[in-house]
Design brief:
The chain is mainly alpha-helical. The protein has two domains: about 1-65, Homeodomain-like (Arc Repressor Mutant, subunit A, Orthogonal Bundle); about 70-199, Tetracycline Repressor, domain 2, CATH 1.10.357. It contains eight helices and no strands. Helix 4 packs parallel to helix 6 (about 125-150), helix 5 (about 95-120) packs antiparallel against helix 8 (about 175-195) and helix 6 (about 125-150) packs across helix 7. The chain is globular, with a radius of gyration of 21 Å. Keywords: DNA-binding, Transcription, Transcription regulation. This is TetR/AcrR family transcriptional regulator.
Length: about 200
């Protein structure tokens, strides 16, 4: 218990209390982001008080994490990009390269929904900045997946990350019904197009 209790009072130390507060704040932040991600899909403008209510926290707590609606939505999008990029190496560890790419494309469809809804809810200057900063990491993830596929002989030699990004960018322009109906088929066609040509 040394270092955890103040001597000789036995009270919990300030460092432990501080760690608990930080952990609690991180949990609140995660709940806020998840609630905003869910609510941004609903019709109408996203309201911060609705996010706070969905999380069961006070509006003051929400504003401490995200002072404005755009701050919150920008972070929702950044988190989605981080998770999409992080999925690529995990999928390559668990699957053959082309299967990993197909599974990653399934994750892209979810990302496309978030991108569409967030970008529709924020100022053009903000979403352009977010898009510009996300292009590099997403391109690197695609390049990693394609390189693994080329090395395994399951992806055509001339496939480039930019080709894939241009093609998948159209997903964020589809509404939910069309994304559900066409998304899997479009991504399957893309996978087939990435295979090496037959001799």
């Amino acid at each position: 218990m040394s270092g955890y209790l103040d001597e000789p009072s036995g009270h919990v130390s300030a460092s432990v209390k501080g760690a608990a507060r930080r952990a609690d704040a991180q949990r609140n932040r995660e709940r806020i982001l998840q609630a905003a991600r869910d609510l941004v899909r609903e019709p109408g403008e996203l309201k911060l008080n609705a996010v706070a209510k969905a999380c069961g926290i006070g509006q003051g707590t929400l504003y401490r994490h995200f002072p404005t609606r755009e701050d919150l939505l920008a972070e929702v999008y950044r988190r989605e990009v981080e998770e999409l990029v992080a999925a690529a190496p995990r999928l390559l560890e668990a699957h053959e390269p082309l299967d990993a790419l197909a599974a990653w494309f399934d994750r892209v469809a979810a990302y496309a929904r978030v991108k569409r809804d967030v970008f529709a809810a924020i100022e053009a200057a903000t979403w352009r900045d977010l898009a510009a900063h996300s292009l590099g990491p997403i391109g690197e993830a695609v390049d990693r997946l394609l390189a693994a596929g080329r090395a395994a002989g399951s992806v055509r030699a001339d496939a480039e990350a930019r080709d894939v990004i241009v093609l998948i960018s159209w997903l964020s322009r589809l509404d939910d019904a069309e994304l559900d109906a066409r998304g899997p088929r479009l991504l399957s066609i893309l996978i087939d197009g990435l295979r090496p040509p037959r001799p």
